Amino acid sequence: MTNQGFELDVSNPGWYKAWGVVRSSPWDVAGAFATKADAEQALQKFGPDYRVVYGSRKIGSNDFMFE
Q1: Per-residue pLDDT tens over the stretch 34-52
Q2: Is residue 43 part of a domain?
Q3: d(CA 44, CA 14)
Q4: Which stretches does DSSP call E strand in the chain?
Q5: Could you list the residue range(s) of the whole structural domain that residue 36 is in?
C-alpha cells in the first residue's frame, strides 16, 4: 500500500518509508521523498550540513527517524 508514492512502514503504524534530506545540528527535516534520486536532487538546494538518509516519516508531521 502506498501514500502518494510512499510505502507505508509496516513496523511503525502511521509512518511511511521515505528518503529524507536532513541536518543533524540543529535538527531539521528539509523534505521527504519517494526516491533517492529526488532526495539527492533536492539536496542541492541546501548547505553542506544536510545529507540524504533512508528512514520513516510520521504521516502529517515533520517527525523523521533513521538509523
Answers
A1: 999 999 999 999 989 999 9
A2: yes
A3: 29
A4: 2-3, 6-7, 15-23, 28-33, 50-58, 64-66
A5: 2-59
